[in-house]
């Protein structure tokens, strides 16, 4: 019996209905998953996520999230593997992903939510594209450090050469790596 459950958080800001290079590469990677492995895909740009307000040094705790933020928290806690599907924007993560990660700070301080403890049991993956692998490294390091902070197993990064629409499809090395990236180990 397979107990893995994947959550794919797509952080691209492409227009709705347009699959960009990073999401295309992520969908290639899912081909290695057994058919019975649950996958949930959420597009962060389509969600109404409130900005994070840091109350650590004032209120200290946070109210339980509501609406789409609760949907996002519930999906995060339900998965075994969290896959961030994020193109490189200005050498970093897209703003929707940054907002999501900022909310981790509040979820760690929400009464009744054992966020930090549960996150330590989840594997964190990153799938990304950019025009240049070296310029993607700061973003990859940032995501790896997030995993380290919560004691999450770092499952690594899959990078492909992106840029104009469909560019990653010509990156034979990335396409081959995608076939192995999520394969059961």
State the share of residues found in helices, binned by percent. Answer: 25-40%
CATH topology descriptor = Rossmann fold
Largest pleated sheet: 5 strands, parallel
| Backbone CA Rg | 16 Å
Q: Order of strands in the sheet with the most strands?
A: 2-1-3-4-5
At the fourth level of CATH, the homologous superfamily is: Flavodoxin domain
Q: How big a fraction of the residues is strand?
A: 15-25%
The domain count comes to 1
The averaged pLDDT comes out at 94
Shape: globular
- CATH structural class: Alpha Beta
Keywords:
Rossmann fold, 185 residues, five-stranded parallel beta sheet, 17% strand, alpha/beta, 6 helices, globular
Outline the fold blueprint:
Elements: E1 6-10, H1 21-29, E2 39-43, H2 67-78, E3 81-85, H3 95-107, H4 115-119, E4 123-130, H5 133-149, E5 154-161, H6 172-181
Parallel strand pairs: 1-2, 1-3, 3-4, 4-5
Task: Give a description of the structure.
- By secondary structure, the protein is an alpha/beta fold.
- It has six helices and five strands; from the N terminus they run βαβαβααβαβα.
- A five-stranded parallel β-sheet has the order 2-1-3-4-5, sandwiched between helices.
- Helix 5 links the parallel strand 4 and strand 5.
- The longest helix is centred in the C-terminal third of the chain and has 17 residues.
């Amino acid at each position: 019996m397979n107990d893995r459950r994947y959550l794919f958080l797509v952080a691209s800001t492409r227009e709705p209905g347009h699959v960009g290079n990073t999401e295309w590469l992520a969908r290639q990677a899912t081909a290695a998953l057994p058919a019975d492995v649950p996958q949930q895909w959420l597009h962060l740009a389509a969600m109404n996520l409130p900005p994070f307000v840091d109350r650590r040094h004032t209120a200290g705790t946070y109210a339980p999230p509501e609406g789409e933020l609760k949907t996002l928290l519930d999906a995060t806690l339900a998965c075994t593997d969290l896959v961030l599907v994020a193109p490189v924007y200005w050498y970093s993560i897209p703003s929707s992903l940054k907002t999501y990660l900022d909310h981790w700070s509040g979820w760690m301080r929400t009464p009744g939510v054992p966020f930090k403890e549960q996150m330590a049991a989840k594997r964190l993956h990153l799938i990304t594209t950019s025009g240049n692998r070296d310029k993607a490294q700061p973003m990859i390091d940032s995501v790896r450090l997030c995993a380290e902070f919560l004691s999450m197993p770092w499952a690594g990064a899959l990078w492909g050469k992106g840029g104009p629409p469909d560019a990653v499809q010509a990156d034979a090395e990335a396409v081959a790596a995608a076939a192995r990236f999520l394969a059961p180990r």
